[in-house]
């Protein structure tokens, strides 16, 4: 699982800071999460292959999370894309994109499929045989969802010497990997645990931006491998959180601790600060395993 | 008169090329012309004071000419702008901007005034005591206007020794500067040309992008100081002009020659080419005074 941070700053794009956008590589998928202005240039700068993106998840309709989407949709057309593009985001997003395409008289040549979100409860919005994606309802000034990406349980790993030794027909190998006991050629039931190793643990990623401190998300993100939680402000500006419905680094760390996640990544930094060390310091006072997002860097888990 | 090129490339923003946007400084105005994605970052990069922009002119509703507008409008709000912002552009632009503001629940705190254009004939769209702005109807795939910026005639310059010598009351100085003959203290009519110098010549700038080769614009841009004319293609790709309704460098130069302009600036280059010298060579074969636009440079006239 690899997370590429294209932008992790709030409000406005600037010379050296980009608004929210990231690409999660998980089980051969390349999921684009949020798409602030300039995302397509950030994709180029970070040498991420545009064409591999088939699913885009938009958290909410504040500009710093989606103003780059129309440009990307348009560029896909100019690049003669033919494969489907699925866009998941709040109701209204389709209207914005379609209106601009209508005015330009330039429809996409590829299938563009909108999945508009309106539910205030977590829902499963994408699923295949490898991954599930669920919404995480967040508490912000307008309708907002975070997204939870979970790998499906991996198969157990075959101990090839053991299965041969146990005289099991190859036709049963998949059953064993899936955790079933099977009979061998001699009619004896073989415990799958004796001829397979534990599956690789499943990984999961929860993206939570933008939101005020809200413990109601904790059951949804319990024990995730990686939590990205916004931390727009430092504690000295905590008063701004209530009005703007954002969080501090301490808030993010408290959620991470209570949800018992492995790793917390902080992002969505207000551009009012010079440097971001303060965010790490304040979060680490509550929760130890803290990373800072930075435009253009990647994390592997 | 100063022209700042923020972006002069067609189609998509890339790591080192920006879509169309430029700032014309003329008679203390700062006019923003087109606003492709990333324009606000280009404004910052080129150290242009955002707050001085009060008028934005959008040629047409292809993304590479306006996808950065919503972000700029939004950023003006975040920067607590209070002064009026006037936006001139094709019908539909207001709907796009207003829809996105409605969805974000974030109205501007400053007056945002749209001037939607629908006429197929040149019209005067802005005028004060210093400058006029007229549309230049262009011939592109969708409804498109270029813009003609013309200084109003300057006053003649007073020859202070001559007016004192001629015994003219100060009350008549403005009349003289405006080109009227006046009577002096002795009742003698004084020829204004004898006591004033020629006014500075008026300057004018014509922005013509995007358009196929079309001689119908020539009367509108006759004798302008500077013509910016798109040259998306080189001659070897001229066949593409008909389909895409764009021009070659030679087309642009032919228009410049026939309109007898002082200086031609080429821009809106297709990103298919490596380097832009070919554009200059091809244009100079027809018209001598050719400049190439380049992102981040300025021209003074």
State the secondary-structure class of chain A: alpha/beta
Average pLDDT score of chain A:
97
Tell me the strand percentage band of chain A: 25-35%
Task: Please give the count of helices of chain A.
Answer: 10
Number of strands of chain A: 18
Q: What is the oligomer described by this structure?
A: homodimer
Unreliable runs of chain A: none
Largest sheet of chain A: 7 strands, mixed
Order of helices and strands of chain A: EEEHEHEHEEEEEHHEEHEEHEHHEHEE
Radius of gyration of chain A: 22 Å
Question: TL;DR of this structure?
Answer:
The structure is a homodimer of 301-residue chains. Chain A is 24% helix and 28% strand.
Describe the structure.
- Two copies of one chain form a homodimer.
- With about 300 residues, chain A is of the alpha/beta class.
- The first copy, chain A, has helices at about 40-45, 70-80, 95-105, 160-165, 175, 190-195, 220, 240-245, 250-260, 275-285; strands at about 1-5, 20-25, 30-35, 55, 85-90, 110-115, 125, 130-140, 145-150, 155-160, 180-185, 190, 195, 205-210, 225-230, 265, 290, 300.
- Chain A has a seven-stranded mixed sheet with strand order 6-5-4-3-2-1-18.
- In chain A, strand 16 (about 265), helix 10 and strand 17 form a beta-alpha-beta unit.
- In chain A, helix 2 (about 70-80) crosses helix 3.
- The longest helix of chain A is centred in the N-terminal third of the chain and has 12 residues, at about 95-105.
- The radius of gyration of chain A is 22 Å and the shape is globular.
- Chains A and B meet through helix 1, helix 2 and helix 3 of A and helix 1, helix 2 and helix 3 of B.
């Amino acid at each position: 699982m690899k997370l590429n941070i294209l932008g992790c700053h709030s409000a406005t794009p600037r010379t050296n800071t980009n608004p929210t956008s990231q690409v999660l590589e998980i089980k051969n998928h390349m999921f684009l999460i949020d798409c602030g202005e300039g995302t397509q240039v950030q994709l180029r700068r970070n040498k991420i292959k545009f064409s591999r993106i088939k699913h885009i998840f938009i958290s909410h309709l504040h500009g710093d999370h989606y103003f780059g989407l129309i440009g990307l949709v348009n560029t896909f057309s100019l690049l003669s894309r033919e494969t489907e593009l699925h866009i998941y985001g709040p109701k209204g997003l389709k209207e914005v994109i379609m209106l601009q395409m209508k005015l330009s008289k330039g429809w996409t040549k590829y299938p563009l499929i909108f999945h508009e979100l309106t539910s205030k409860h977590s829902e499963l919005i994408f699923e295949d045989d490898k991954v599930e994606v669920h919404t995480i309802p967040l508490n912000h000034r307008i309708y907002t969802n975070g997204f939870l990406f979970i790998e499906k349980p991996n198969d157990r790993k075959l101990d090839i010497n053991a299965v041969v030794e146990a005289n099991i027909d190859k036709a049963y190998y998949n059953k064993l990997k899936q955790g079933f006991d099977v009979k061998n050629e001699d009619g004896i039931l073989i415990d799958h645990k004796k001829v397979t190793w534990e599956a690789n643990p499943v990984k999961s990623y929860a993206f939570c931006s933008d939101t005020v401190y809200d413990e109601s998300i904790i059951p949804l993100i319990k024990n995730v491998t990686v939590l990205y939680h916004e931390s727009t402000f430092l504690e000295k500006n905590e008063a701004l959180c209530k009005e703007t419905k954002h969080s501090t680094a301490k808030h993010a760390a408290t959620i991470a601790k209570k949800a018992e996640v492995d790793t917390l990544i902080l992002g969505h930094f207000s551009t009012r600060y010079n440097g971001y060390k303060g965010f790490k310091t304040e979060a680490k006072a509550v929760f130890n395993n803290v990373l800072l997002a930075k435009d253009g860097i990647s994390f592997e888990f």
